[in-house]
Amino acid sequence: MRLGMIGLGRMGLNMARRLLRGGHEIVAFNRTSDKTELAVVEGAEGALSLDELVRKLDPPRTVWLMLPAGPVVDQHLEDLGRILSPGDLIIDGGNSNYRDSVRRSSAMAASGLDFLDAGVSGGVWGLEEGYCLMIGGPAESFHRLEPVFRTLAPPQGYLHCGPAGSGHFVKMIHNGIEYGLMQAYAEGFDLLQASTYGPGLNLADLARLWNHGSVIRSWLLELAGNAFSLDPGLESLKAYVDDSGEGRWAVNEALDLAVPAPVITLALMERFRSRRPDSFADRVLAALRREFGGHAVRETNNDPNESR
């Protein structure tokens, strides 16, 4: 198939590469032209504007967006809506909020455009291993794009999840589960490292061991083993964990549905905590223990230059 790829970041460029390797034709566009030039070197046809990209596609056109969630997606959809034709198809493969996808699908339909929301998992390994695709939207549009999905995904690695928004909803829950799994591994390895056995344990070897027959084997554990092999004490990293939004959305959904999700919620809170190495809340706790129980505290000596 021939399709346009807009957004050539870490995911988008590798997805374009995988499609090219699978025999598809790609017209590539990125806000900064250096990424477009990289795609051209790989065999894509470059475009320096959205208008040029649309002109280089034959109707019914297919355009895949790999853009950061939020206003930038809306802006591209608005711009594309003015230059695409009825019957053309847009796929949002970024990590958009599923509620936005429902709204966008309705807006595109009013202009005669088809819209699919595709949750994409696979990260930087997707180029070689394939991408897990969770797709929402009209079944006819899904079937029209199946040759593309088959190329991007590993065997049995894509699914039509249902109507508009369902792809991004499923991806949101997927990422919430991911938060909980990573937190459990982090706590387990922390306990190992702090124990009397810690100095004698090779955590990389242990991660590899657990991936052979253990009930906790997983790809995340493989990645942990890789990380420990390169840096056994992870000394090169700061203990700061960011979040990209899906965990927050999953927790908000749990609140809206009154569904208990304590593991996902706590994993998200731990990420927030990682960004506050000397929080005011912890100083309040220390002060309260001192006040009611006379417990010892660690003083800062009121040194204004002391790091907090």
Helix count, DSSP H or I runs of 4 or more residues: 14
Judged by helices, strands and strand pairing, the structural class is alpha/beta
- Give the termini distance in whole angstroms: 56 Å
Assign an overall shape: elongated
Backbone CA Rg: 23 Å
Placed side by side, the strands forming the largest sheet appear as: 3-2-1-4-5-6-7-8
| Strand runs, count | 8
Instruction: Give the low-confidence spans.
Output: none
Keyword list:
single chain; 308 residues; alpha/beta; 14 helices; elongated
Descriptive overview:
- The structure is a single chain.
- The chain is built from 14 helices and eight strands.
- It is 51% helix and 12% strand.
- It has an eight-stranded mixed β-sheet, with helices on both faces.
- The relative contact order is 0.08.
- By secondary structure, it is of the alpha/beta class.
- The radius of gyration is 23 Å and the shape is elongated.
List the helices and strands and how they pair.
Layout: E1 2-6, H1 10-21, E2 25-29, H2 33-41, E3 45-46, H3 50-55, E4 62-65, H4 71-83, E5 89-92, H5 98-110, E6 114-121, H6 126-129, E7 132-136, H7 139-144, H8 146-152, E8 158-162, H9 166-194, H10 203-210, H11 219-230, H12 246-257, H13 262-274, H14 280-293
Parallel strand pairs: 1-2, 1-4, 2-3, 4-5, 5-6, 7-8
Antiparallel strand pairs: 6-7
